[in-house]
Amino acid sequence: MGVLKKELTSLNKDTLEEDNMGDVNDEASQSELESESEEGEDVMLTEPSKNSIYNSNGLLEKLGDISWPENVEWIHKLSIDISQEQEVDVNDDLARELAFYTQALEGTRQAFEKLQSLGLPFLRPSDYYAEMVKTDTHMVKVKGRLLAEKKNIEEAEERRKAREAKKISKEVQAQKLKERAKQKKEEIESVKKWRKQRQQSGFTGGDKGDEMSLPFEDGKGFERSNKRRPGVAPGDRSGGKARQGGGKGKKGTENKRKSRDYKDSKFGFGGRKGQRKQNTADTTNDLRGISKSSFSGNKKRKR
Amino acid sequence: MAKKRKHIETQPSVPLKKDESSTQRPKRTLLGWKDKVEEKEKDSPIFKNREKVLVTCSRRIKYRYRHLMLNLVSLLPHCKKDNKVESKESKGATLNELVELKNCSSCLFFECRKQKDLYLWMAKSPNGPSVKFLVNAVHTMEELKLTGNNLKGSRPILTFSTNFDKDPHWKLLKEIITQIFGIPKDHRKAKPYHDHVFVFSIVDDHIWFRNYQISVPHNETDKVDRGGLDKMTLVEVGPRFCLNPIKIFGGSFGGPTLYENPLYISPNQIRALEKRKKAGKYAKKIKAKTRRKMHEQSNPLEPDEFADMWKE
């Protein structure tokens, strides 16, 4: 072994300085080398400044020793060489993984072409069931995780859409309210104009050839519908929407309020007329309806 | 059953036997398959890959690395898993004996030091070269982000980046890897179809390993439709690791050092350097204080003209 080493050292053409270690034991050589390298370095190494062994002839010899014969068919080796076009930065994870992926893809394409030309079956048929490297239970977990991720993404999407839709609907609502207000204003304005016009033309009735056909002269005035809606008082001009916010919390007092509301809506504010006082200034002194000898009335009433 | 079917189908595709060369292929001996080739053989119809790998680890190995080892065992059907090896005394001799005992031709030895660093030895037995790697960036197959799956025992397609042909030491590594990770064609436990691919590429003087499952839409087993190759997708199966070659030895677990990686710094050294960086903090602070004091003494300030302004 020692003789061989000497031969190799003499033949070494490498540019790096070669360190002649006489020992065979790898542990001793390793420790010695480390101590040598430590005195060679003071700082973290970034360039190969150490004295390190590079025995290319020995390497090639060993390569010749172990390699299979030259003309072994490719099918035994199944190895493909793919060239890396550009230098990949190690720290950029995405680029690195992409480089590996493209290498694998290219490799499989070439391999499949070769296999196809050899005529061997290499694609798995759909009914071929055999033991896989990962168990079925594990694959179920994987599937569960994938589904959960998908669901999370979809939920996030939906939430975002709902938020945007709410924004939009708020805008649309604002628009609608504006429209309504504008409409109302316009109608009032048109009434005013009509009045002015009529005033100007001296209240002559039945104007023929009246240019302005005003929208409310159709012959049909504003008619309140005779329908009585239970939650709405008869004198209510808001269309029944004024009391809408109060329908949430119905407790004890609210129930009483509810019957009050109901009565209000039927009889207007104040209740049934029959339960009320009915005298006016004129009828207080009207004693028509009272018989003289009737003591069945109220005793407290003064006669 | 599947194996039988494959056998029948591949019979006609084996190339015709040419004249065998004068030197007969060396016979298989108990110590494994000796492949000292004296002269070139024209054709090797009786070439049989009888590679067998022994996979062991040292004691006090961490769970993550143990899982990695088990993953590799499941990926390589031509391997034999053995018990843990005591790593104190000369592990070289014990491992060599073990390999010979188990009738294997190569060995993958996972050595875990300080429960933090994993070293991987790849060795060819009995007198082949051996390599020691430092393993980084380990992701096992059990991680749920690696969603692919492949047949247990199917032969992988090995892809290497062309950097492997640039230097002799990379060439040697490529050969070792091809022999260890390539499953023998007619192995008992090998499944017939090729549905996964190994990627070995050299980036930043490290060897990166990836394992992808091939999914291509196909109807028949022995050819792909014309557009099929373009629709091929790869899903990662795992495991993933990154190898940093430390040394290459001429013998198995020993022998003369043929190559040493100049850029390699052992993890112990890295940790020591980090600690030393932090260690000087207090001393530096004291030094800085004394320096400041000296500086102030040697360059005294002019008396402040407003110093007496607020004095009573």
UniProtKB/TrEMBL annotation, chain A:
Belongs to the EBP2 family. This is rRNA processing protein EBP2. Residues 16-26, 33-44 have a biased composition (Acidic residues). Its main location: nucleus. Coiled coil: none annotated. Residues 280-297 have a biased composition (Polar residues). Residues 1-54, 155-303 are annotated as: Disordered. Residues 155-170, 176-192, 207-225, 251-266 have a biased composition (Basic and acidic residues). Keywords: Coiled coil, Nucleus, Ribosome biogenesis. It holds the Pfam family Ebp2. GO terms for biological process: ribosomal large subunit biogenesis; rRNA processing. One of its GO terms (cellular component) is nuclear periphery. It is found in: Nucleus, Nucleolus.
UniProtKB/TrEMBL annotation, chain B:
GO terms for cellular component: nucleolus. InterPro entries: Brix (IPR007109), BRX1 (IPR026532). The keyword Nucleus applies. GO terms for molecular function: rRNA binding. It is found in: Nucleus, Nucleolus. PROSITE patterns: BRIX. Its main location: nucleus. Residues 51-254 form the Brix domain. Residues 1-34, 281-312 are annotated as: Disordered. One of its GO terms (biological process) is rRNA processing. Residues 281-294 have a biased composition (Basic residues). Keywords: Nucleus, Ribosome biogenesis. Belongs to the BRX1 family. This is Brix domain-containing protein.
